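Duplicate of #3305? Posting structure anyway:
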């Protein structure tokens, strides 16, 4: 693979890589700060509710009715608490600030697509066509090069960088 250094494309490719990593890091950080992790508590409550319902079903006889009713009431109270936790987490996940990294990522892709259409050459690197055979046509997207010629375009490079950043900095 040889890098193409036409009109600062290599610097732009490195900037895209670092921006992708930074945006993913921002996304993970915002999610950890703004969304409470209630999965363990929800799982514990769900297990306790199931246990109480089983216990109430076993005690559902005339002579143990009071114990069965007590277990039912406790299960209903825990179900309400579980629903409240789920609602809080859903509300926290729908905050607009959590969508900021996604919007910036889309703006970056829109800029790169516009640059590829308006610019001259958007080839980041050349790879032997036999090494990227099934993906050669996709990698050469918006490059102006013949399909499958081994060119790696700026837009596919950005998408690959975003996938790499997501794999490296996966949250939770």
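Output from current build:
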């Amino acid at each position: 693979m040889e890098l193409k250094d036409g009109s600062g494309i290599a610097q732009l490719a490195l900037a895209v890589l670092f921006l992708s990593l930074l945006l993913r890091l921002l996304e993970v950080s915002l999610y950890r700060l703004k969304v409470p992790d209630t999965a363990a508590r929800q799982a514990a409550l769900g297990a306790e509710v199931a246990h109480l319902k089983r216990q109430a079903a076993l005690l559902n006889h005339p002579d143990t009715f009071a114990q069965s009713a007590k277990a039912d009431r406790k299960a209903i109270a825990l179900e309400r608490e579980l629903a409240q936790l789920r609602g809080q987490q859903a509300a926290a996940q729908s905050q607009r600030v959590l969508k900021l990294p996604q919007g910036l990522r889309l703006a970056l892709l829109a800029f790169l697509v516009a640059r590829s259409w308006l610019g001259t050459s958007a080839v980041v690197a050349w790879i032997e066509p036999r090494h990227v055979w099934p993906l050669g046509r996709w990698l050469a997207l918006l490059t102006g090069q013949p399909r499958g010629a081994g060119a790696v375009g700026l837009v596919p490079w950005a998408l690959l960088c975003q996938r790499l950043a997501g794999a490296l900095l996966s949250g939770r």
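Confirmed duplicate; merging threads. The CA atoms of residues 56 and 85 lie 24 Å apart. The chain is about 65% helix and 5% strand.
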